[in-house]
Structure formats: C-alpha cells, structure tokens
Amino acid sequence: MTILLKRQQYPACPHCDESTQVRKHGRARSGLPRYRCVGCETTFQTRYIYWAYQTDSNESVGR
Q: At residue 57, does pLDDT exceed 60?
C-alpha cells in the first residue's frame, strides 16, 4: 500500500517572487498565518487587516 502525502502550497514571496523557499512562521496577533522567505529572509502575510501594509497599496497614509 502506497501512502501519498499532500504537499502544502505556500504563497510566493512578495519581495523576491520565490515560492520554493517560503515556510510557515507562526501567526500574527490577528490570527492570520505568517510566512518567512528563507531566500531573502523576510516575513510577510498573504492578507493584512490594516490596508496600508498591503504591498500593492501605492497611496500614502495621511496624518
């Protein structure tokens, strides 16, 4: 009998666009999963609560 293990799919790193070196890195205070890229040594989330932390937001936050 052969047992097949399901390989987890991790998101691509938004800094270096590499997905093979991304590992789990715990959870944020909001409960969302965090990831760490071993290649460029950065941490990131796939979704953020505060919109200004999104990597594709080009608008600046006014104070």
A: no
